[in-house]
Structures are given as C-alpha cells and as structure tokens.
Specification:
Strand order of the largest sheet: 1-2-5-3-4-6
Number of strands: 6
Mean pLDDT: 88
Number of helices: 10
Structural class: alpha+beta
Largest sheet: 6 strands, antiparallel
Radius of gyration: 18 Å
Length: 257
C-alpha cells in the first residue's frame, strides 16, 4: 500500500510503499520532481521523468522523500538534466564510504522514511523563493516568455536554469505541471472536456494527446488503474505538519519505483 504525508522539509513529501506479492506495478508519472529512495539496503536517486516509469523486478518495499520541483540538485550536487529519466545509486553521486554510513542509518531505523526525512532536513536547504516563483508561474499556466519577463531574466537564461534545476526546459516543465493539474481534476470526477478547459488545453483531444505522450496510456485507463489499486492520496506516516498547497505533487498511481 502506498502512503504519503507532507514533510517537515519545505515543499517535500515523505512516502512509503509496501506492495503485496500480487500487487500490479503501476507507473510513476512525470511530476517535475526528484526523489531520494531507500529499498532493500540501497539508497538511490530518481531523476526527473519525461515519461512514465514502470518498475521492473518483483514487488519490494520502498521509502522515499520527494523534493519540491527543482530543489534536489542543490542537495545532490548534480545538475538535474544528468539524471533525467534515470534511477541511480546515491554512491554514484556521493563518496561511497559516506553513502554506506547513511545506508546503515536508514536501514536500522524503525521507520526508514523518517530517517530519509531527517537526512534531508540535515543537508537540504528549503526551495529558494525564486525557484518557488518560477514553478508557481508555470503551474498557473503563464507562458514561458511572460515567466522570463516576470523573473527579470532572458529566455535563454531561463532555459539553462531549468535544465539544471528540473532536467528539462521550461516548456516541458509547464506541460508536466499542467498534466498533473489535469489528472488531479479528473481524479475528482470532473468530465474530461471540463478538465481540458480548466487545465488550459485547447480541447479534450489535446488533453488526450498530452496524457498519452507523457504516460503511454489513455486518461481513462490511468483512472481505472487508480480505482482498482484503491490507493489513498495521503495517509499518516508519523507526525507531520499541516498540509500545504505548494508541496511536491501527489503520486496516487505509484506502486513501486
């Protein structure tokens, strides 16, 4: 079962997944975020996705902390575009002896997810105000050129910053954030045509094309998978602060990583 809660680290989400042997692997959809992961004695990093990621291998328990969009590279010391569409060992990014100590710390913790959160709190800085503003503008549907103007930078500089922070350019980030906005509306039962209009698509056909491009599935199929999984959007994982509207996106389809 997948559970998540708002992290004590600003903008982040802490989550766990403990699938049963019969659990079907559901895709992790692009959301503009990166995760620090723990599973079966390994610390890994999930880079920013541009397509649905379907875990391979047998079901396994996972714990993770999903960072606010663009916030993880400063912690990891690696530009996001180097990790795009990848899952890599943390030891490939940080010194191996240090990672072994951190892995032991998480592995021996009563709640590995809380140990990951503590690690992030010790080492990660909250998302910078400029980063939050950039994400907020694009998430609200602001055109890329207008976003650059409001931030007081040129389009090329915005593109370079986006590659380092998010792993792709601002147009791709805007499309991914719009997709997440549309999926949230559709999950609440909004008709597809209304979802398309309110999320900023030209029409329902445009929404359908974008969903299939980023997820490899039709919108109806994604929603059916979610209903079959009966996965809660949020659930308690220990003490947590009140929910915020500016946290990393929920991943209700996740059943692995």
């Amino acid at each position: 079962m997948y559970e998540e809660r708002v992290s004590r680290l600003a903008g982040a989400v802490v989550w766990t997944n403990a699938p049963s042997p019969s659990t079907r692997a559901f895709p992790v959809l692009p959301d503009g975020c990166m995760d620090l992961l723990y599973s079966e004695g390994r610390l890994l990093v999930a880079g920013p996705d541009t397509r649905a990621h379907v875990p391979d291998g047998p079901p396994a328990p996972w714990a993770g902390i999903r960072f606010f969009p663009g916030a993880a590279p400063a912690l990891l010391g690696v530009p996001a575009h180097e990790l795009r569409d990848r899952r890599v060992e943390l030891a490939d990014l940080w010194p191996a002896p240090e990672v072994r100590c951190l892995t032991d710390r998480v592995a021996t913790a009563l709640r590995p997810a809380m140990a990951l959160e503590s690690l992030a709190l010790e080492r990660a800085a909250p998302p910078a105000p400029e980063l939050r503003r950039l994400v907020a503008l694009l998430a609200a549907g602001r055109p890329v050129a207008a976003t650059a103007d409001e931030l007081g930078i040129g389009a090329r500089q915005l593109h370079r910053r986006s590659l380092n922070a998010f792993g792709y350019g601002p147009k791709t980030l805007a499309r991914i954030l719009r997709l997440q906005r549309a999926l949230a509306m559709a999950r609440e039962g909004m008709p597809y045509a209304d979802t398309a209009a309110r999320a900023g698509y030209a029409d329902q056909a445009h929404l359908s094309r974008e969903v299939r491009e980023f997820t490899g599935a039709a919108l109806g199929d994604l929603l059916l998978r979610r209903r079959l999984a009966a996965t809660p959007r949020t659930a308690p994982l220990g003490p947590a602060p009140p929910a915020r509207s500016d946290e990393a996106p929920s991943q209700p389809f996740r059943a692995g990583y």
